[in-house]
Write a structure and sequence with these properties.
With 267 residues, the chain is an alpha+beta fold. The chain has 4 helices and 12 strands; from the N terminus they run αβββββββαββββααβ. Strands 1, 2, 4, 6, 11 and 12 form a 6-stranded mixed beta sheet that branches. Strands 3, 5, 7, 8, 9 and 10 form a 6-stranded antiparallel beta sheet that branches. The protein is globular, with a radius of gyration of 24 Å. The protein starts with 16 loop residues before the first helix and ends with a strand.
Amino acid sequence: MFRNLTVTYTVGRLKKPRVLFISLLLSAVGTLLSACFQNESSEIMLSFQVKFNGEVSDCLPDGIDTLSFYLADPKANETTKVVFAGEGVNPRVALIRFNPCGDEEGPKVAMRLSSPSTDSLELLLGVPFDLNHLNPVTQAAPLNVGSMFWTWRLGYKFLRLDMDGWSFHLGSGGCRSPSAVRPPEEPCEYPNLPMLDVPIPGEQAITLILDLDALLFEQDLKAADSCMDGLYQSPLCSALIKRMGLSEDGTCVLGCRDQVVVRSETL
């Protein structure tokens, strides 16, 4: 990188010429290391689609009014740091929103890895406790979306699905505080934070499919109550929680590996 580097300078009565030489050498080494790190880092683009009534699309299907969810705290191996990158995200959290068909392209989010040496990523579907009960009015994107927030006590809606008069809003439950406008000091009794395992087989573009057919399989929603407020005690709501890989107490069962709602495809 520095094969043809030539440095010309004039020194008058310099008592310690070695100081200048060492300074230049350290600067050059720092630049070289920085360039090497940039060359080793990589970026992966996640695209998102939804499956409903047997059809797969990157926009809101007919019959779905709202479909949004948060992803948080991407992790790889112990030596690789992963952050979300781009507009409308922060390094730890991204909001994925499906828009009406024809409005704009499908949802995407970039992730920056400090090293390409990883074969899988872990993501939380939701917002971790330390970020979940902040005031959305004072937060930067993507935690400033009021429609994805319940109260300071309950925090954010991790996943919001609204359709034909029925809703499924996934979020933490059993959160305790003196009032609805006070955040809890201790983690909620039911975290309800599914974990997603995303294989990275070398490709730089990956599609995650949110399979609503798998989530709602053989469920009659016409006469069912909505599943909201973080507590899911009806048979229908309990079935949906289980399909997200969660136990009845809102924790991951075996790392949520049995969840059937989100799957990945490489491009």
